[in-house]
Amino acid sequence: MNSPQFNEALEKLRKASRKVEVLKLLLAGYTNDEIAQSRGRAEGTVRKQISNVYKDFGIKSEFPGDRPLRDKLKDLFLKYKPEWVSNCSLAITNEASNQPQKINYDGVTSLALSDDEIVEESGEELMFLAINILEALGFEQKFKMSKTSQDVGYRLKNLENGSNPYQLILSKQKENLSISIPLDILEPHLLNLKYWEYTDVLEDIDLFIKGRFWVLPSKKDIFLESLHLNYWQILQVEGKTVGDCCINTRRYKKDPPIDVISFAMNAYKEYERRYIAISSITLEEFNPETLSDANAYLVVNSDERFDEKWNMWKVSINLKEALQDFLSYFGKILMDKH
Predict the structure, then answer these.
(1) Which of 26-30, 199-203, 317-321 has the lowest mean pLDDT?
(2) Can you spell out the DSSP letters for 133-199?
(3) For 222-243, what is each residue's pLDDT tens digit?
(4) In 10 A of CB 336, how many CB atoms?
(5) Residue 227: helix, strand or coil by DSSP?
(6) In 3D, which of 182, 175, 176 has the Cα closest to residue 153?
(7) Pairing, β 243-246 against β 191-199
(8) Between 11 and 151, whose confidence is greater?
(9) CA 20 to 30 Å from 126, out of 40, 135, 221, 249?
(10) What's the pLDDT score for residue 65?
(11) Average pLDDT over residues 171-186
(12) Which region, left, alpha or beta, applies to residue 162 given φ > 0 means left and ψ of -120 to 50 means alpha?
């Protein structure tokens, strides 16, 4: 492979973040099994990805007993992109000096991906990673795991009367992982956006929750800096990422008449409840998916699979960083509570 061919192959590979991650780990000297562990994937999946990397760069065995393919790949990068090999080798050397027999998950992630590279995982890969995260938290000490082909549920081992049996449910989708947790666990940590809206029952306006969100603690600044203009004045000024916040305001329909104020205070109290909503954004314009940087927060929705008694709410995750943050955060809360 000559230099133009190499550059063309590398440029094409840069568009596939998963391949970039595998490539850098290969150049760093990780084995197939180590790459699979560090990325939370099955080894068979990793072998296929590695095979595709070799194919992209024209790496193949020429004859029986030929040199290992990964050595050929390394030589190719030493020739045309030596800084990739030296940087990766340095990273693994430093890591190995601290923990020679163990791969540090966070270290591998930072090695493999730059800040602007976002890797979306499949539901199966995320399920595998989620189970490992919960195992690392010691979830099996207090919760019993139940599995089906699509779901993994964690039940309390010492269930009290009237308690919700399931405290966390993982549900595998094709492109993401759904995680359901009781609302009473989630609620104190959520950002609730409310909206003043007219209701026929009261013949007046009332306050309704229109969106629940969990902002990743590690991305709070990004969330606030990237807010959609519709919410900038509402959220960014206060720096608010937890608690209740109204996305519109209200005022009296009109001033009450003088005689009501002077002679009938009861009537005045009735009158003052008649408000109108003043909105800088309509409900049609309100879109939970475009609140801010999509990687800085998760939308929380009711899980309709469970009855009201359980009151389970869910998030859908397709990034392993968000999965790590969410499960580490709420997993510890569940462990401490029970």
Answers:
(1) 199-203
(2) HHHHTTGGGTEEEEE-SSEEEEEESSPPTT--SEEEEEEE-SS-EEEEEEHHHHGGG-EEEEEEEEE
(3) 888 888 877 776 776 677 899 9
(4) 7
(5) coil
(6) 182
(7) parallel
(8) 151
(9) 221
(10) 58
(11) 92
(12) left
Is it true that domain 3-112 has CATH number 2.60.40.10? no
Residue 87 to residue 68: CA distance in whole angstroms: 21
The structural domains of the chain, with segments of one domain joined by +, span 3-112, 123-181+315-337, 188-297
Cβ partners under 8 Å of residue 227, min gap 6: 235, 236, 291, 292
- Nearest in space to 284 (alpha carbons), one of 230, 213, 207: 230
Alpha-carbon distance values, 90 to 84, 97, 178 (Å): 10, 11, 37
At a CB cut-off of 8 Å and minimum separation 6, what does 3 contact? 80
pLDDT reported for residue 94 = 40
Amino acid at 67: R
User: Mean pLDDT, the chain, as a whole number?
Assistant: 76
Cα gap 24→8, rounded to integer Å: 17
DSSP state of 233: I
Question: CA angle, 118 as apex, 226 and 169 as ends, to 5°?
Answer: 90
- Judge contact between 194 and 208, C-beta under 8 A: yes
Q: Reduced to 3 states, what is the DSSP secondary structure of residue 76? A: helix
For 242-260, what is each residue's pLDDT tens digit?
999 887 776 555 555 544 4
Instruction: Specify the pLDDT at position 246.
Output: 82
Tokens linked to 38: 């560090």
Give the CA count within 13 Å in the CB-facing half-sphere of 312.
22
CA 321 – CA 111 distance, rounded (Å): 14
With contact defined as beta carbons under 8 Å apart, do 196 and 248 qualify?
A: yes
Q: Is 276 helix (H, G, I), strand (E, B) or coil?
A: strand
Could you report the per-residue pLDDT of 42-62, keeping only the tens digit for each? Answer: 777 777 888 888 888 888 876
